[in-house]
Amino acid sequence: MKLVVVSAGLSVPSSTRLLADRLATAVGRLTSVDGQVVDTEVVDTEIVDPQVADTQVVETQVVELRDLAVEIAHNFTNGFPGRKLAAAIDAVTGADGLIVVTPVFSASYSGLFKSFFDVLGVSDEDALAGKPVLIAATGGTARHSLVLDHALRPLFAHLRAVVVPTGVYAASEDWGAEGLDGRIERAAGELAGLMTGLSAGTRGQQATRVTPPAQVTQVPKDGSGNNAGGSGDLGDFAVVPFEERLAALRV
To answer: Cα–Cα–Cα angle for 93, 116, 95, nearest 5°?
Structure first.
């Protein structure tokens, strides 16, 4: 199982990367197989040891967009990804789950963050289709916390990803304060559940309880299949019970 973290932080150290790491650690801890807590290995982009990957139940790979800024810009002008950018695209495309974290610039995601996913969408429009994604952002003030729902969530909905219900926003005053840890745990649990298929199983159980479509109960009065003279005049059209229509579709 592979978890990929996309961080668009620009500074070193970066609060965006710090939030990304805390989310990744929580997801790795909460992701379990047969009730066993698994280990998480955090590696940098393109440094994935196959032996490590084989021995870890969850492999976490971090993509730092700061290191890919030049290749992302070149991709817009020449249409081809460089070596590091191609590796990052492959990692994101092959992930079982994503954590994406951006700093807030001008009340929205950063240009670098959007550019990476623009490049990804151009290279493969189905790259994120059905993929579980946890969205998160950092900013200097809590007044930008709605960026999660007015910018990030629509972006990943457009890319047809499955965005977990809880997004995590961390303003400067949130670090060390109450509340952030709880949001991280809740969001990480939701992503871990999707990655391990628990939510898919729940959806399947719910699907079995879906009420079937209403059956046609109107019966022709003359027994001929015509409804002439009945309520809701259907003229010469016959009313076919739903069971018969369903049976006709079966091979």
So the answer is: 20
